[in-house]
């Protein structure tokens, strides 16, 4: 009991709980990426073909002494001559062939050796898989604002536990779903649980870390959990599906989710209602703030690139690289590792070099990396672009998440549930628009052109991050600032925020002149 009492007062244990919740959510997010395309192909395309072939009558075996419909081989000129209207091509001595009159030569286009058959089915599957992946983000998009309002009323602890419960149910449903419809429902249910976990978790972190620099580091570590989940998910799913079975990765995740629930019961006390001490700024007011909109747009566009890759890259690899199943998940490994490095590295560095600069460079690198993806001819050619993509998204996420809390502290009231609902909405818009439109755009334009469009959008948006260089404080905050000039408390205030963000030589010189 003494350990629990001290643990509940420790921000670090709260960070551990949020880290584990984001980790499991994002393992489940990406574990389905390599599983769903091949599972649907196996159950629907191959299943339909096998049922059709079993319904056809078996051909009657031809007796070896009666070959009236077979070809007769001449031993003098080695020419195959069709007999009694047999329609196969005539093979001439020089190796060329021709068809009988009225039968044009047929050259069926067979897929390269090792590739999956059914090109038209794979093309349609792009759209269906994209919609299935997008369903999670679409549901999360709708639920997020309500979760933000709920956290302002009852606190962060109960919504976090609700998120765990729904996540566990979704994981079990994934394990035992055998049709597209059930997989779609399980994915949408995951969106509800993810909304509770992410909004409440990030808001809880912002409230227990009031100092801006500590908050940035804590956000970087929490996003490292997100990155680790993405890192583990796709390779773990592809290997377990290939060698153990479809249900195995989801059953392992369900067990880990139970461990997370026990941790939340011990640390967070989810039965306790603890509303925000200050009245939160309405969502409509925050949505009219141009600086919050710029930060949200950066989150949306940078994550849209990897969201479009999730449903389209595995199918493109099946069609062009003839990749085995285990490679479909391993292709995302460089992006996940570099994202993990990027979020932890720039959680600390971004506050020193300027978060606006980190996000601007990150968005430019995201665009360039996406432009390089279609140039790959095998899985090794994807290592560089995917690694650059993951590292750059890590730069953007670890810069923008603390900026959201900083903007609320600077320009509004310090209640974080609503602003992180907006941040999660922006994140989910990328993961909703990306897969749902990506599959359709691949069918219409092709995979390379899709990458070009999204890459150019990211490069074009990058300069807007300059607007976050020194956002002005609201008039009410300026009045408070003028009354509290002599004090420089350790905790985050608007006065300290103005001096610490962004940290440049000019701002230091101006501060010294004023003093």
By CATH, the architecture is named Up-down Bundle
Low-confidence stretches: 58-114, 483-508
Give the CA-based shape.
globular
How many distinct folded domains? Answer: 1
Annotation field: number of helices = 19
What is the helical fraction, as a range of percent? over 70%
Query: What is the CATH topology descriptor?
Result: Growth Hormone, Chain: A
CATH superfamily: MFS general substrate transporter like domains
Euclidean distance between termini CA atoms: 49 Å
- CATH class equals Mainly Alpha
Helix and strand content put the structural class at mainly alpha
Main sheet: strand order: 1-2
Number of strands: 4
The biggest sheet, with number of strands, parallel, antiparallel or mixed sense and barrel status, is: 2 strands, antiparallel
On the 0-100 scale, what is the average pLDDT? 75
What's the Cα radius of gyration? 29 Å
The percent range for strand residues is under 5%
Order of helices and strands: HHHEEEEHHHHHHHHHHHHHHHH
């Amino acid at each position: 009991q003494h350990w629990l009492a001290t643990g509940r007062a420790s921000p670090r244990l709260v960070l551990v709980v949020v880290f584990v919740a984001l980790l499991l959510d994002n393992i489940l997010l990406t574990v389905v990426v390599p599983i769903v395309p091949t599972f649907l192909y196996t159950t629907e395309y191959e299943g339909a073909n096998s049922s059709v072939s079993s319904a056809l009558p078996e051909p009657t075996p031809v007796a070896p002494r009666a070959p009236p419909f077979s070809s007769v081989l001449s031993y003098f000129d080695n020419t195959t001559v069709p007999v009694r209207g047999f329609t196969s091509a005539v093979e001439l001595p020089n190796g060329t062939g021709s068809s009988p009159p009225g039968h044009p030569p047929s050259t069926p286009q067979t897929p390269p050796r090792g590739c999956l058959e059914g090109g038209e089915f794979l093309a349609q599957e792009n759209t269906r898989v994209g919609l299935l992946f997008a369903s999670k983000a679409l549901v999360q998009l709708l639920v997020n604002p309500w979760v933000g309002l709920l956290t302002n009323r009852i606190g962060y602890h109960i919504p976090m536990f609700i998120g765990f419960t729904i996540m566990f149910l979704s994981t079990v449903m994934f394990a035992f779903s055998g049709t597209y419809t059930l997989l779609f429902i399980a994915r949408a249910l995951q969106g509800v649980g993810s909304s509770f976990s992410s909004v409440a978790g990030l808001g809880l972190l912002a409230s227990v870390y009031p100092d801006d620099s500590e908050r940035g580091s804590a956000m970087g570590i929490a996003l490292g959990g997100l990155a680790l989940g993405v890192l583990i998910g796709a390779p773990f799913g592809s290997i377990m599906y290939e060698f153990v079975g479809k249900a195995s990765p989801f059953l392992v995740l369900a067990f880990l989710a139970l461990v997370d629930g026990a941790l939340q019961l011990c640390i967070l006390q989810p039965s306790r209602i603890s509303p925000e001490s200050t009245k939160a700024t309405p969502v409509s007011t925050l949505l009219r703030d141009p600086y919050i909109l710029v930060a949200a747009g950066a989150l949306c566009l940078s994550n849209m690139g990897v969201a479009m890759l999730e449903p389209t890259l595995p199918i493109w690899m099946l069609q062009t690289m003839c990749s085995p199943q285990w490679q479909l998940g391993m292709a995302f490994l460089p992006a996940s590792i570099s994202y993990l490095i990027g979020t932890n590295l720039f959680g600390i560095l971004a506050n020193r070099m300027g978060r606006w600069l980190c996000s601007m460079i990150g968005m430019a690198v995201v665009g360039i990396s996406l432009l390089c993806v279609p140039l790959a001819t095998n899985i090794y050619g994807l290592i560089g672009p995917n690694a650059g993509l993951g590292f750059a998204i890590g730069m953007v996420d670890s810069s923008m998440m603390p900026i959201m809390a900083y903007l609320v502290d600077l320009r509004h009231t310090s209640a974080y549930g609503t602003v992180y609902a907006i941040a999660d909405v922006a994140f989910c818009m990328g993961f909703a628009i990306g897969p749902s439109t990506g599959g359709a755009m691949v069918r219409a334009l092709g995979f390379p052109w899709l990458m070009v469009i999204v890459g150019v959008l990211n490069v074009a948006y990058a300069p807007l991050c300059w607007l976050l260089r020194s956002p002005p404080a609201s008039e009410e905050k300026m009045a408070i600032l003028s009354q509290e000039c002599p004090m420089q408390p350790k905790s985050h205030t608007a006065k300290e925020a103005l001096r610490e963000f962004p940290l440049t030589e000019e701002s230091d010189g101006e501060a010294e002149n004023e003093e």
